[in-house]
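does this look right to u?? BJW version
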Amino acid sequence: PPIVPPADLASFSEHLNSSNRILALLGAGLSASSGLPTFRGAGGLWRTHDAMDLATPEAFRADPGLVWQFYSYRRHMALKAQPNRAHLALAELAKRKEGFMTLSQNVDGLSQRAGHPREKLQLLHGSLFDIKCTNFWCDFTEENNFTDPIVPALAIPIDESDPTSSEARQAVSDALRARRELDISDERVQLPELRYQDLPQCPKCKEGLLRPGVVWFGEMLPEKTISTIDEWITASKKIDLIMVIGTSARVYPAAAYVDRARAKGARVAVINTERTDAPSSGLRKDDWFFQGDAGQVVPEILK
Ligand code: BJW
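got this back:
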């Protein structure tokens, strides 16, 4: 049976086809179908830590090693993951619709790898693969650093507890060893010890620690990103549609784009596994709510 009610699908498709100015607001639920955990709810725990407690400047100041271990793990998992059919369908829509813009809260690089046109993809919360210096007077930044691990000390530990003989272990290929990586998101697995000097250091000022180029709580979103979106909104006499995909829409200012689009006349389509996770302004009579896995629903409704 179709996962999307046919009547809703028909009215949505009709509206999409006649829409010129379209936004998509993406969240972690989109990449859940690619096997990456979300922040809230199941999977939002990393070891004993709430993922959102680690996504703060205070956490980094208090324990840069722990926070780097968390982000190094996330970089590794994101590189191993593959864009899913929803990432691909959105990339296709971006190519086909002139007035389409994606606002992604995701930092995993999967939209980029799905071939989403970069000028139509705004990264509200930065990227796991951008790096910057924490030294206040140093301006070092680097984009698209896919080195994994970023420094040797942050390599994911390998399960050495092999029941076979040591000779057999020697013969095990790198590929096989890679599959025996320990899951350091599990608190029962011991984290390797880290010394401060083994953490990623700034190659420019040679004094500061590097940090992931993501936006933590209490930090401003990238200025250029905000101004590009503001210009896009201002240039729109009307916004026809905003698709709110796989996000709890509770984190600001990202979540506010739903209401800003509504204020410009946009109809809202929510794609989420949970009906409770509608935008905070609530679902309205002529909104669409497509319940289910974004990886399945999005390609279906964008067909
Ligand atoms: C599926 C699915 C499947 C599952 N298919 N669906 C106004 C009011 C109140 C507070 C504030 C405000 N303005 C600013 C604030 C403070 C704060 C904030 O918003 N706090 C709220 C929590 C209340 N905002 C900020 O601090 C922002 N900065 C800022 O505003 O600067 C100026 C300022 C500072 C201080 C005070 C005032 C102003 C910055 C926010 C940065 C957020 N950063 C993070 C971490 C990024 C790096 C990293 O990845 O580690 O961004 S936190 C985390 O939340 C991450 C996400 O992008 C973001 C949103 O989460 P998302 O994507 O929605 O994930 P989930 O897990 O919440 O939801 C997943 C959804 O998918 C669920 O609905 C599931 O049901 C669904 N789902 N599987 C479809 N298969």
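The longest strand covers residues 126-133. idk if thats expected tbh
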